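Supplementary Methods, section 5.1.

A reviewer requested that the exact input to the structure prediction be made available. We therefore reproduce it here, unchanged from the version used in the analyses.
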Amino acid sequence: MSPRKIGVTELVLRDGHQSLLATRMATEDMVAACEDIDQAGYWSVECWGGATFDSCIRFLNEDPWVRLRTFRELMPNSRLQMLLRGQNLLGYRHYEDTVVDKFVEKSAENGMDVFRVFDALNDPRNMARAMNAVAKTGKHAQGTICYTISPLHTTEGYVRLAGQLLDMGAQSICLKDMAALLQPQPAYDIVRGIKETYGEDIHIAVHCHSTSGVTLVALMKAIEAGADSVDTAISSLSLGPGHNPTESLVAMLEGTGYETGLDMDRLLKIRDHFAAIRPKYAAFESAVLVDTEILRTQIPGGMLSNLESQLKAQGAGDKVKEVMDEVPLVKAAAGHPPLVTPSSQIVGTQAVFNVLMGPYKRLSGEFADLMLGYYGETIGPRDPEVIKIAQEQTKKEPITVRPADLLPPEWDSLVEEATKLEGNDGSDEDVLTFAMFPTVAPGFFQTRDEGPRSVAKTEAQLKAEKEAQAGAVTGPIKYKVSLGGRAHTVQVEPA
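The structure derived from this sequence is encoded token-by-token as follows.
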């Protein structure tokens, strides 16, 4: 009997550097690896969406649409995949349905194949329009379950959610563990439950981070339960708050009755490329390697590295542990939402406020909206005292309808505003860029013609650092000291 083929989604071009390098990797540092990635035999290549769109225009002076078209050109044989936040698209608020339709249409036109659609609260109402829009383009709509742990989250509940996504037209299901919380037995139980309930032919993908140290085993159990594809990142940009190494998965499956079919020679070339690139972004790296505390705090990889950067920028780097302790308390008060963009940023920011200013002395506008239902429904009830504070602060009333139902048509007004901006090229893509990030896009349009601005260290800087290290004191130094007419030998150890 021939081994069962397990598809692999390579994450190095998106979630790999989002989780380990605060999403700062420039396109120029990825293009040389694209041919090998394209020929390696992956089920799909995740290369867009998530926080990359924001980082392109905020930090790198890159047009994210150009990045997507570049990947499409350089990887003609691959399914290109993106992470799409349902009704939030790639921004941090809900968009009116017409904008959702237009964004999906333009993403497909520019080269996207697989749309991994999720909602931060697992509210199916917030995924339906995006899933329908993907279906209209003829592309692959992957319905996503955001995995988290709470007294209210059960295997049965996750299986039920999978059924709702299939009813919406999902062509595959992704079990997305953004915080390395997925332990082996729940991975097995959820995948098996979906297969037994809805059929063995349902394609199930499993995504998990590696921070807790247990998730490579979880991937194995998910495969044994019937998972059809799993997500990994090439080893030179893996582990820590990132993902399990692609090559390790290949090795783990040897002799098990499962195989990936990946070309190891190609994988080694990809590995070597990113091994050379990674030191250029050392300033953005998280110090975390393995953190079993994550099973308690539930902070996802991308959130962890960005949270550390934010606290350091505010001169509060010593408060990281306090904020991590506060996150699960804020999560519970908000009704136990999964921590994934944008809910992770919303809960994380409120945890920072609580630590620096006192519990709920000040609510961010986003957290107030989360408490009042403007992001959708959570699995559990929200703290009524915090809801009251949110009402007093915002002068808004709680809602129970789908948040996007309250939004008036906005495409025409977005076009009108965007076309007034200096540097806007008049395309729908530029209107969408403005819609996603209305405060950042105007500055980007003005500077776009200057070309990309990498935030990585240059080769000259890396060489200078290496030479400085080579000249540094690495061993003990002995001195002869005369004191009171007597000679003494003093040995000084390096710090």
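The mean pLDDT is 93. These observations are discussed further in the main text.
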